[in-house]
Each structure stands twice: as structure tokens, then as C-alpha cells.
Structure to design on (224 residues):
């Protein structure tokens, strides 16, 4: 795997604004960049870094092949991505995720967005979440529980108040010829501890969460 830092020319960002501000079209463009054959399955992760005005600053891309620069797109490629990790080490991390809750209903597995599911569970029990939480508090509560579960699966641990959860955003996604849907993302940022180096390394390559498209799932780390 290779880690790429993609910088897009400012003029191109303005000229092709429709592409770069639409999560589906941007995802499609990334596919074009990494595509090797028509039967290829998604084997890459990426993360978009935005400025204060939600303009793209750059994109980090983890892919199995080295991607050359394109017209209007400058790509810096690291040596082969081979993180050296040890159990017990501490890292600072950033993760943008589309947290999903899977439940069985009427014998069928269904998926729900984390925040909507939390609100639904309160309503199901004839309760109103706002009597116990502000929306930010609800997001932090269910977001931390989700992240702790992912840590148990992927070899890391996090502690309350050592992680910030923000940038709760919704995106309208309309693939051609398919039903439109809403994508809701959360940004997690803070400190973690490795409890199983092998499992954690797999997570860095494979991503975090069951929904990793549209710039979600890529965990970026640096030693704390």
C-alpha cells in the first residue's frame, strides 16, 4: 500500500466545483484515479481535508498502487506504507466515519445511521432524548460507545474525554439510476492506545467501520 497526498489546483477547484463539492462525484473521480481494471473491487481508502469554508485543502489516499499526478492534480507519494507498531504504544488519531448500527427486525438485518437510531430508540421507549441530552451530548455519548466497540474489534482502546467528536454533517447522495440516500459523517480525533498491534495494523489498511465509501473509514495516526 502507498499513502498519497493529493493537492488540487485552485483554478480546477473553482472550474470543477460541482465535482469537488459532491461526495458521490468526488468518490467517482477517486475511483477513476485508482482504477486498474473494470472488475476491480474497492481496495483503497481516502480522507478529504477541508478548510474553514469547506473547500478541499488536500486528500489523503491509501491505495495498493502508486498513482501519478494528473493535469491540475499534484500527487505526492510516500514510500511503501509500512507502519511499525507495538502493543502499548500511544497515538494521536483522526477518523471520519459513517457510523452504522445493524439490527435484526422481522428476521431481516437492517442498517441505521448511529444518530437516527439513537433518537429512534428513545422514541420507541416513549422518551424524548432532549430531556436527558443536548444533541451534542447525544452525539458524543453514542459516538464514544461506537468507537469503543470498534476499538475492541480492531486492537485499540480510547478513553472518555480524550476524544473529540464533531463535524456532524449530512450529505445527499444520488447515484445515477439508483435511489438517493443521506450519508451522515462524524469526525473523531484524539488519543488512543494500541492493545493488539497486529489487529490495529489491519485496521489501518482495511479501515474502520462497515461503511467506508465516500471518504470514510481511513484512520490517520501519529505518535503522541
Amino acid at each position: 500500500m502507498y499513502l498519497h497526498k493529493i493537492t488540487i489546483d485552485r483554478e480546477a477547484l473553482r472550474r470543477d466545483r460541482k465535482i469537488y463539492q459532491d461526495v458521490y462525484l468526488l468518490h467517482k473521480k477517486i475511483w477513476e484515479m485508482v482504477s486498474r481494471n473494470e472488475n476491480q473491487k474497492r481496495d483503497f481508502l481516502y480522507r478529504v481535508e477541508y478548510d474553514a469554508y469547506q473547500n478541499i485543502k488536500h486528500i489523503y489516499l491509501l491505495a495498493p498502487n502508486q498513482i501519478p499526478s494528473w493535469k491540475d492534480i499534484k500527487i505526492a507519494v510516500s514510500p511503501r506504507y509500512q507502519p511499525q507498531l507495538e502493543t502499548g504504544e500511544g497515538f494521536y488519531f483522526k477518523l471520519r466515519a459513517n457510523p452504522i448500527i445493524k439490527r435484526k427486525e422481522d428476521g431481516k438485518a437492517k442498517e441505521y445511521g448511529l444518530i437516527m437510531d439513537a433518537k429512534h430508540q428513545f422514541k420507541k421507549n416513549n422518551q424524548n432524548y432532549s430531556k436527558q441530552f443536548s444533541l451534542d451530548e447525544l452525539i458524543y455519548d453514542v459516538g464514544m460507545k461506537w468507537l469503543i466497540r470498534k476499538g475492541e474489534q480492531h486492537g485499540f482502546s480510547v478513553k472518555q474525554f480524550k476524544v473529540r467528536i464533531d463535524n456532524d454533517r449530512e450529505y445527499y447522495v444520488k447515484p445515477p439510476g439508483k435511489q438517493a440516500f443521506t450519508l451522515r459523517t462524524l469526525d473523531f480525533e484524539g488519543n488512543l492506545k494500541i492493545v493488539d498491534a497486529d489487529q490495529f495494523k489491519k485496521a489501518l489498511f482495511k479501515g474502520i467501520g462497515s461503511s467506508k465509501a465516500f471518504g470514510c473509514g481511513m484512520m490517520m495516526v501519529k505518535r503522541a
